[in-house]
Amino acid sequence: MTILPDRVNRHSEAYAANRQALLDQLAEHDRELALANGGGGERYVARHIARGKLPVRQRIELLLDPDAPFLELSPLAAWGSDFPVGGGLVTGIGVIEGTECMISANDPTVRGGTINPLSVRKSLRAMEICRDNRLPLVNLVESGGADLPTQSDLFIPAGRTFHDITALSAAGIPTVAIVFGNSTAGGAYVPGMSDYIVMIKERSKVFLGGPPLVKMATGEESDDESLGGAEMHSRVSGLGDYLAIDEADGLRIGRQVVRRLNHRKRGPGRRGPGTPPRYDIDDLLGVPSADPKVPFDPRDVIARIVDDSDFDEFKPLYGSSLVTGYAEICGYPVGILANHRGVLFGEDAQKGAQFIQLANQIDTPLVFLQNTTGYMVGKEFEQRGIIKDGAKMINAVTSSRVPHLTVHMAASYGAGNYGMCGRAYGPRFLFAWPNAKTAVMGPAQLAGVMSIVARQSAASLGKPFDEEADAKLRAAIEEQIERESLALHMTGKLYDDGIIDPRDTRHVLGMCLSVIDNDEIHGTRGYGVYRM
After folding, report:
1. What is the CA radius of gyration of the chain?
2. Residue 528: which pLDDT band, with cuts at 50, 70 and 90?
3. Are 508 and 431 in contact (CB under 8 A)?
4. Residue 80 pLDDT more than 60?
5. Is the pLDDT of residue 7 over 70?
6. At residue 440, what are phi and psi to the nearest 5 degrees?
7. Which of 152, 69, 80, 158 is closest to 122 using CA atoms?
């Protein structure tokens, strides 16, 4: 039998402590999310609505099919920075007329929808997902253009936006723009380079330079409508393809455009009906340890995210710190690699490399469930070749061509982050639980290493070592590394695609696997599976 057993003790003190710690972290995340969802604040939202305009998330809701889910991406981008949380841009995946689409929508209540360096990164990430998964892109445009005070950090990378819209079209991936208001200066190229453009009467304004700039540059007197209004672009310039009478009509036309795209999935499709797991998904709140030093068995997670809790484990008696095996999630076949005891030994690296190669041989996507402190260190392990073994696993991840999905369940330190397909290794999607921590190494270890180096340096120079100053410095370093390793800090820098509730893991992975199914899956070929 390949059905995983239910081994979670819901009545234990450890379970209760783990659950409460994760609920507290989820509550903190939800408070930050509420701020992002509030846009520019009550004053600016009220002013926006008073002008007869819909809030950005209501626009998205009307665009999507009724009751269709919306997987918002990077909702807390820019957290901890000088820019508004969320970056004034909402991106995510939803279903329009039965077609999965990427939606990228300016929030005009946040600094007029202007673009800043972090919202550019968020936009580029959305288009990267479109390219990798052949996902149509729908832009809901209302932006005052660049955030001018940050232009030196913005101008060059922002140019990639127009490049990527054009590249999507060239690759046969449809792009649609619905213009709700201003789309000025460089922002005019967002609709200008899209395949289909919907403009709204007396609302849309698309021009390279508005009336003030035109007056300064040429001395010409003009007004918004004659210079870049929806009627002019629909009747005179030909930039507009469709003219809507109001926002609701513009969204209706946008849905109509998507319906006519004839966009088809090219992937192998689902293998089965997607039978739910046998065990309560709510148990996932008590599984990950509140203390990151205490390991937990990832099989208890796998049993609550895979179909029917059915997991065919590969090499169960070898490399016990890495769990590998095959399963299905929402009917889609996957291979799973999950850390068990945190540290990765040589056997685990060899096992992981072999399993990655096998999954490529049968064109099966891989799911990485991260909880790793990195590869094992020490004289014995160096002599046994831990660097060579770790390099094999990292090589296998790098060379793998099947889609990768990564979830940070807890720790993600050192080269273990790389071997388990961290952000630098290009997973199609990467999400984090609110308890996740990511860094070069643990705070205490990093501070200790720096202390040892300083102590050795003082000894080599024949100088006395200041123990009190060292203790203060170690405490400061530990606090900094702890703060910078937190999930909120990482998601603010867009090092993941969002923080998710562990109970949503199965549904999020299922949506991502459905998106991946837009294209054929071909694993790496050209090598035989070899024992390492």
Report:
1. 25
2. low
3. yes
4. yes
5. yes
6. -60, -40
7. 158
